[in-house]
Amino acid sequence: MAPALTVTETATENVTNALGSVSLKAEKGPSYPRYLPHFDASEKFPPTPVREFSDPGLRADPTKPNLLGPGVQVKQISPYIGSEVRGVQISQLSKEGLDELALFAAERKVLAFRDQDFKDLSPERQIEIASHFGPIQRHPTSGNVEGFPEFHVVYRDADHQRFREYRGADNRAIRTSWHSDVSYELQPPGTTFFWILDIPENKAGDTLFLSQVEAYKRLSPEFQKRLEGLRAVHSAVYQAEYSRKSGGPVRREPVESEHPVVRQHPVTGEKALYVNPGFTRRIVGFKEEESEYLLKFLYDHISKGADYQIRATYEPGTLVIWDNRVTVHSGTGDFPQEQRRHAVRLTPQAEVPIPALA
Ligand SMILES: [Fe+2]
């Protein structure tokens, strides 16, 4: 069983691809109505430009004096992935502290910061802090916040179940849906912010995370050599088609990007698998059956690796920061349909993935 922590997640892409306005008719309305998902089918974005990126972690003091000073408590969740942190406010960090945060997130893969005031900052300030880690991705189909297309809103309640429909949850035996956020982008996200606003009444809605570094390390040197140099196609097409079919926004025409199957982290130098069932569609240069065979093996390998996975749980004030380049994650559909879960993500984009070569 994956070690239990106390964090949460972004479920999956399009979790909140609810259409129309979100009503406040429930007995108890959402705690943060300002962040209810906003859908405007006429909203359009230009294609995402290629942008210069230098990871802030490269500038960080490896001893992290500005992030992990006196009084800060760090608890390991599992040896390979995940730390829980108390006693520091992300909102108060200096630029040096934010650089150290980038490094720490890369090293530990997932960080669960407790008792944060981040959720009560202004949207402008939230965006300013997250922008330290790269230009914020604007999601092409999911709910955002009116006036702030940088936010990706995760929202479910009794009346808004688009996520379940998107994933076909009602006709699936297993609800786990491993993915790396928007990996179809040419510059997929790195240091990613996700914070909870409303936790389901049954205290569920956790997030599973796993280390793609450890998943790669478990393979034999011969198999690793076969993977290195391969590239795979990551596609936004299905997500866009679903949104279009549902009358939702397609703010940018869907993109497909080829990424290395094994990528190297620019700060730690660690090699990580970089395929995920959510968005990776095929191996470049392989015939269809070969591609399906290899991807099926890798997805099985990832999903069965309970000793390099964690379960992140949420408390009021939890802010989870993960490195999306070296992890995959999945929401857990373990709360009743009528209960509300509300969270927000800011998704800074990082470098064009660096291929790991033997
Ligand atoms: Fe996600």
Automatic annotation (TrEMBL):
<keyword id="KW-0084">Basement membrane</keyword>
<keyword id="KW-0560">Oxidoreductase</keyword>
<protein>
    <recommendedName>
        <fullName>Laminin IV type B domain-containing protein</fullName>
    </recommendedName>
</protein>
<keyword id="KW-0223">Dioxygenase</keyword>
<dbReference type="InterPro" id="IPR013015">
    <property type="entry name" value="Laminin_IV_B"/>
</dbReference>
<dbReference type="GO" id="GO:0046872">
    <property type="term" value="F:metal ion binding"/>
</dbReference>
<keyword id="KW-0479">Metal-binding</keyword>
<keyword id="KW-0964">Secreted</keyword>
<keyword id="KW-0272">Extracellular matrix</keyword>
<dbReference type="GO" id="GO:0016706">
    <property type="term" value="F:2-oxoglutarate-dependent dioxygenase activity"/>
</dbReference>
<dbReference type="GO" id="GO:0005737">
    <property type="term" value="C:cytoplasm"/>
</dbReference>
<dbReference type="InterPro" id="IPR051323">
    <property type="entry name" value="AtsK-like"/>
</dbReference>
<keyword id="KW-0408">Iron</keyword>
<dbReference type="InterPro" id="IPR003819">
    <property type="entry name" value="TauD/TfdA-like"/>
</dbReference>
<feature type="domain" description="Laminin IV type B">
    <location>
        <begin position="230"/>
        <end position="358"/>
    </location>
</feature>
<comment type="similarity">
    <text>Belongs to the TfdA dioxygenase family.</text>
</comment>
<dbReference type="InterPro" id="IPR042098">
    <property type="entry name" value="TauD-like_sf"/>
</dbReference>
<dbReference type="Pfam" id="PF02668">
    <property type="entry name" value="TauD"/>
</dbReference>
<dbReference type="GO" id="GO:0005604">
    <property type="term" value="C:basement membrane"/>
</dbReference>
